[in-house]
Amino acid sequence: MRPRAHKVRPTRGEVPSGPESLLILHAAELLTLQGPSGPRIREAANELAVIEDGAVYAEGERIVDVGTTSDVLARHPRAGLQIDAAGRVVMPGLVDPHTHPIFAGSRAREVEWKSQGLSYSEITARGGGILHTVLETRKASEEDLAREGAKRLRAMASFGTTTIEAKSGYGLRTEDELKVLRAIGQAGRIAGLDVVPTFLGAHAVPPEFEGRRADYVALVEGTMLEAVAAHRLAAFCDVFVDEGYFSADDALGILKKARQAGLRPRIHADELSDAGGAVVAAKIKATSADHLNHVSPEGVDALASSGVVAVLLPASSLSSHLPFADGRRLVAAGVPVAVGTDFNANNWSESMPLAVALACHHNGLTPAEAVVAATMNAAHAIGREGDVGCLEPGKQADVLILDLPSWHHLGYRLGGNAVEAVVKKGRVIVDHRRAP
Ligand SMILES: [Zn+2]
Question: Ligand 1 centroid vs 310 CA: distance in angstroms?
Fold first, then answer.
């Protein structure tokens, strides 16, 4: 159900200056994330640029002014909608840089199998795993996929996410990959969120190509990629580089062709084993290298010298029973680090605040680094740093109001939801506040 915006009432300014203006004021802590425009590395990855008793003023979709409440009020004394955020934390909308939200069916029954200690190949042999989701998704209509996807995106928004990267990869046939990518766009429009689409035809080798990986790679980098590019359905192209999936050489070939077709490269790298994913991500100057649970020292150095953003996905380490990526080592080496949910059929987790907390407890990030990883650095990981990830004049008015006494609680609280309101492009799209 669409959140009802009318519960938020103007707290001041009986004569609104226009319905298109918004003033959030008296935030106990306003996290602006203002600073240099590049991804934040090393010490800068801890800088949140906090303003006490802070205010944000927006007109239409964009932020116009940010500062202390007294300064902003002096410049912009009234607004169409004023929200008093006294005692609250106000920060940029969260950016989830890695999700797979469009699929049919579920993998709920596999949890019992996991709890019995079955391996991934044993689960696959029982008819589970990614290929189960592929078969279900191929049977589903585009409309049903978009409708279910929109529900998931809205759930993400209810936890504070306002911009989402979303991958295909459960179709694995040209028509089905196009269907999933169109459903991604439609789900974003229904949910009212910014969605950055990624073509992931190289997610797994589908059953009809069993034993013929090279033939499937030729299909992905040929017909499939051409169709995706011709319909302008994706901004990025991704490859799952790992044992049993695709090789670093496969990725190099696919991503070179993708770049020629106008898609930016990114890579699922070194999740299950060190398969050279990070090294090839650096070689091709990918925008991001994601997972990195088993990245080699050589891979870390390559990421640091190439500026590729490392995307950590601790919730999927949890649900796949894998070791957590060493975020501390990546930050120390000077790699820009982002964090995402990896929402997918095997890891049903919509909550970026949970990912932030897990990144603190299991990836070795400080709470401040984890907040930067979920905002500014996540925006860089999906090429949206010009619009989102911080609160400064000119950026989109994507703002969260959190019922927390301090931002430190973002790393501390596990699994609840402190979101009180979510503003997307200047409009309240989620309102969890109780009517007085
Ligand atoms: Zn993934």
Answer: 13
What's the CA-to-centroid distance between 237 and ligand 1, angstroms? 12
326 and 409 belong to one structural domain: no
Residue 299: domain span: 95-381
Q: Are residues 150 and 117 located together in one domain of the fold?
A: yes
Three-state helix/strand/coil letters over 361-385: HHCCCCHHHHHHHHCHHHHHHCCCC
In the predicted model, is pLDDT for residue 4 greater than 80? no
Residues 6 or more apart whose Cβ sits within 8 Å of residue 180? 102, 137, 145, 168, 169, 170, 171
- Residues 419 and 401: their CA atoms lie apart, in Å, by 6
Neighbours of 180 (CB within 10 A): 33
Same domain (yes/no): 217, 357 = yes
Whether residue 290 is found in the same domain as residue 302: yes
Q: Considering only CA atoms, which of 295, 288, 350, 294 is closest in space to residue 319?
A: 350
For ligand 1, the distance from its centroid to the CA atom of residue 20, given in whole angstroms, is: 37
235 within 8 A of 196, measured Cβ to Cβ: yes
Whether 169 contacts 203, CB under 8 Å: yes
Return the structure tokens found at 222. 């040929």
Q: How far, in Å, is the centroid of ligand 1 from the Cα of 342? A: 5
Res 435: pLDDT: 52
Residue-wise pLDDT for 77-120, tens only, equals 999 999 999 999 999 999 999 999 999 999 999 999 999 999 88
Question: Residue 241 pLDDT more than 90?
Answer: yes
Instruction: Give yes or no: residues 398 and 353 share one domain.
Output: no
Report CA(200)–ligand 1 centroid distance (Å).
9
pLDDT digits (tens, 9 = 90+) for 353-396: 999 999 999 999 999 999 999 999 999 999 999 999 999 999 99
Q: How far apart are CA 374 and CA 425, in angstroms?
A: 18
Size of the chain in residues: 436
Residues 149 and 267 in one domain: yes
Running DSSP on this structure, what letter comes out for residue 160? T
CB 424 within 8 A of CB 1: no
Count of structural domains, the chain: 2
Report the alpha-carbon distance of residue 115 to residue 106 in Å, rounded: 17
